[in-house]
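Extended Data, panel c. Modelled sequence:
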Amino acid sequence: VTHVDDAPFFNRLPGNHHRRASAISSVLLVLILAACRSSLPAKFVEQAEPGVTLTTLTASPQEYRDKVVILGRVLVKKGKKGGQVWLRLKNRPLDPQYHPHRPISLDGPEAGHFWVTTSSPQQLPPRYRQWARMTIVGRVIGTTNEEPVLLLMYMRGWDVSGKNDDTWETSIDPAYVPSIPDGLHGEFQTQ
């Protein structure tokens, strides 16, 4: 590996230009590394079941019961029932950096819905309703009308421009499992 100061190009530059070229190279390297990194903390990526999509989760929810999954989404509906906040979400498939995107088909299985729950609205980030898209990390706790229900652990959202993002992480005991109330978009079935 050639150090920047030993590279022939940099040796030919006068002192001030040499420092400027080194600074520009450093900034470019940081930007490239930032663009390649995951948008999620490593601890959630490590906990999550790899490769889970809404289609696989819906096809065999029992297989993922009490496991951590990562899904993309947009907010459809918010409600409060049984002392919990319930968010119904429209799925958005994730890219390798865990950024959500529109599914190939708006009528296909990846365009379905799922639910997330948390214990109070104060636990949600203040601007989550303005997020145009989100990445959700949650533990599978059941289903309703064949739609998975996740206990919210982490969420990251982006505004319409895609440039302004925000994150939120739960402070709840990971062993906590809320009871699923009857009557929220149909009957909830436990697995």
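The CA atoms of residues 139 and 151 lie 5 Å apart. This feature is highlighted in the accompanying rendering.
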